[in-house]
Amino acid sequence: MLRATALSLGRALVIAEIVSGKVSPATLSAITAASKVGPVAVLVAGASAKDAAQALAKVESVASVLAAVGEHYSHGLPEEYAPLIDAAVKANGYTHVFAGTSAFGKNIIPRAAARHGCMPIPEVTEIIDENTFVRHTYAGNAITTVRSSDKVKYCTLRGTAFERAAADGGSATVADLAPTPASGKARFVEDLLSTSDKPDLMTAASVISGGRGLKNGDNFKILEELAAPLHAAVGATRAVVDAGYVPNEMQVGQTGKTVAPNFYLACGISGAIQHVAGMKDSKVIAVINTDEDAPFFQIADYGIVDDLFKVVPALTEKIKAAGAK
Amino acid sequence: MFRSVPHFVKVAVCVKRVVDYTVKVRVKDNKVQTANSKMSVNPFDEIAIEEAIQLKEKKIADEVVAITIGTKKAEEVLRTAMALGCDKAVHVVVPDGAADSMEPLAIARVLQKLHDEIKPDIWLLGKQAVDGDFGCTAQLLAGLLDLPQGTFASKVEVRDNKVTVTREVDAGRQVVELSMPCVLAADLRLNTPRFPKLPNIMKARKKPIDSKDVAALGVDIAPHLTTETVTEPPTRKAGVKVKTVDEFYEKLREAKVF
C-alpha cells in the first residue's frame, strides 16, 4: 500500500551544471525526471552560484534552490562537490540525488554515492517508481530494469530520454547552503574548450555525421555546408576521431555522446554496434553509403546507395534552392 | 625526465574480462546470453594497461600490478596484462554464479581493501566496462578512499608527486592536477594499446598471480540493485532504399526533417 503513495514521498535533489552562465540542457532534463519522484530541490555551486540560483528558481517544477558560493566549486571538481552533496543530503534527507548524464554528472554522482555507501545508477532512461529504474547495457543491446535497495538513489539521467523542463514558469525559494572547505587534493589547471558557434551536438534537432567514408578531415566541410542551412550539428564516428580528422567531442556512440535528434543523417558510416548505441533513438534516420550491405541500412528509414561526395553537395544545393524560394 | 621524480611510483591497473566488444549479445529468458560468446579484455582496460607500462618505460613507475575480480577464467586477462608488461597480478576469485551480479560498488570495495596491501600511488582503470556500461568504478573507488580522481583521461603526466591529467569533457578538454595517490580512468584517446608478443606471452605464464578468495577478504559484496527484467531494445525496421538524390530529397522532405 505504501508503494502506491510513496512516489509523492520522495525528495529529489538535482545537482545543477552551469555551462557559460546558463543551466545546461542535461540539468533541465534531470529536473523533469526528478519531478516524477517528488518535490525537486536543485543544488547549484560555484563562485557565481547566487546568479545561477535566480535562473534556476524560475525553472518549471523546481520547488527550492540551494546555492553554495565558493570558487572551489567553479570547475565541477568532484573532490569538492561530493562532500557538499553529502552535507545537503544529511541536512535535508533527500531520497534521490540526480544529475544529467554529462561528463560533469558521470564524474560527480558515483563519488557522492560512494560516500554514502550507495550503488549509483548511471544513464537512467526511464523511472518506473521511486526505487525502479530502466537503463541500457551492452551498448544499448539490452534494456535492464533495476530496483535499488539503497536509502538514497544516486542517478544520472540520460538527457535524450526526458523532456527538458521549461526555463521559466517556476517560482522556487532560494536558500544558501554553507560551503564545505576546499579539499586541496585536486586543482583545476585550465579548460581547453573547442569554441564553436555551431549547434550543440547533444541538443541539436538535426545531426549530420561522417565516418571513414569521408576519407579526411577537410572533407567534413561538405557536411558543414549541408548542416548550415539545416541548423544541424555535425557528428562523427570513433574511427574518424581516432584518425584525427575531427575533435573527440564530435564523437557519437557508446563511448562518445548519446544523441536522439529528430533527424540523423549518417554519411559514409557502416553502422557498427558502438556507433549505433549513441544514435538509434533518433526519430528519422537516413543513410548515405556506397556499400549496400552496410549494417546501417537495416535500421535506416531512408537509405541511398551512392557516393556521399555526390549526394551531400546535391542535397545542399536542393535545400538552399528550396530555402531561397 | 626521471630526475624530476623524487621516487618511483607503483601503479595498480584494474582489468575486467568482458564479452568481446564486436559481439552483438542476445537477450533470452530475461537474461543477456553470454555463454559461448568470445571474451576479451575490456577495451578501456587495455588502454589502462598500456598507460601503466608506458609509465614504466618512462622510468616513472617501477612496478605495475594488474588486478582482476572475477571467475577462475578471468585469470586469462591477467596473463594478457602480464604479457603486455605488467610485473605481477592479483586475482580476486569470485564463484561462477556470483560474478555476474557483482556491482561496481562491490568491485570498488574489494579494490579499497586491496589498497592497504598493495599501496599503489596511481590506480589506473578503464572509464567503463562495455558490458554493464556503468562507468563508475573509478569514481566509487576514489570516493571510498577519498583520493582525487582523474576520469576520462586522455593525457597523463607525472611530475614532482603530482599527476597532471587532461580529461575529455563535453565541450573539449579540462586539465586538472592531482596529488598522489590518485585514481585515474582511461578514455579511448589516452593511447593506442600494443599487442602482446609471443615470447612475452610465454614469459607471462611464469609471472606470479596472487590468488585470493573474495569471501576471505571480508568485504560486503551484496548487490544493491536487483535486476527485474532484461529485454531487447525495440527493433527498428529497415525503411526504403532509393535510387536517386532527387528521390532521397523528396522522401526526407515528406518526413519533414527539413
From TrEMBL, chain A:
Q: Please verify whether the record's keywords include DNA damage.
A: no
InterPro entries tied to this protein: DHS-like_NAD/FAD-binding_dom (IPR029035), ETF_a/b_N (IPR014730), ETF_a/FixB (IPR001308), ETF_alpha_N (IPR033947), ETF_asu_C (IPR014731), Rossmann-like_a/b/a_fold (IPR014729)
Question: Could you mention a single GO BP entry for this protein?
Answer: fatty acid beta-oxidation using acyl-CoA dehydrogenase
**Domain Electron transfer flavoprotein alpha/beta-subunit N-terminal, which positions?**
12-192
- List where in the cell it is found: Mitochondrion matrix
Matching SMART domains, A to Z?
Answer: ETF
Please indicate if the UniProt record lists Secreted as a keyword: no
Cofactor binding mode, per the note? Binds 1 FAD per dimer.
UniProtKB keywords = Electron transport, FAD, Flavoprotein, Mitochondrion, Signal, Transport
Binding locations of FAD: 212, 237-238, 251-255, 268-275, 289
- Please explain the role this protein plays, according to its UniProt record: The electron transfer flavoprotein serves as a specific electron acceptor for several dehydrogenases, including five acyl-CoA dehydrogenases, glutaryl-CoA and sarcosine dehydrogenase. It transfers the electrons to the main mitochondrial respiratory chain via ETF-ubiquinone oxidoreductase (ETF dehydrogenase).
**Family designation:** Belongs to the ETF alpha-subunit/FixB family.
- Listed name of the protein: Electron transfer flavoprotein subunit alpha
UniProtKB/TrEMBL annotation, chain B:
Sequence ranges assigned to domain Electron transfer flavoprotein alpha/beta-subunit N-terminal in this UniProt record:
29-221
Q: Which Pfam families match?
A: ETF (PF01012)
Family annotation (InterPro entries):
ETF_a/b_N (IPR014730), ETF_b (IPR012255), ETF_beta_N (IPR033948), Rossmann-like_a/b/a_fold (IPR014729)
State where the protein is found. Answer: Mitochondrion matrix
- Endpoints of the signal sequence: none
Q: Which GO terms describe its biological process?
A: carboxylic acid catabolic process
Supply the alphabetized keyword list.
Electron transport, Mitochondrion, Transport
Q: What is its main location?
A: mitochondrion
| GO-annotated molecular function | electron transfer activity
Q: Which GO terms describe its cellular component?
A: mitochondrial matrix
Coiled-coil stretches are none
Q: Quote the function comment for this protein.
A: The electron transfer flavoprotein serves as a specific electron acceptor for several dehydrogenases, including five acyl-CoA dehydrogenases, glutaryl-CoA and sarcosine dehydrogenase. It transfers the electrons to the main mitochondrial respiratory chain via ETF-ubiquinone oxidoreductase (ETF dehydrogenase).
Family that this chain belongs to: Belongs to the ETF beta-subunit/FixA family.
Q: What do we know about how this protein assembles, alone or with others? A: Heterodimer of an alpha and a beta subunit.
Q: What is this protein's record name?
A: Electron transfer flavoprotein subunit beta
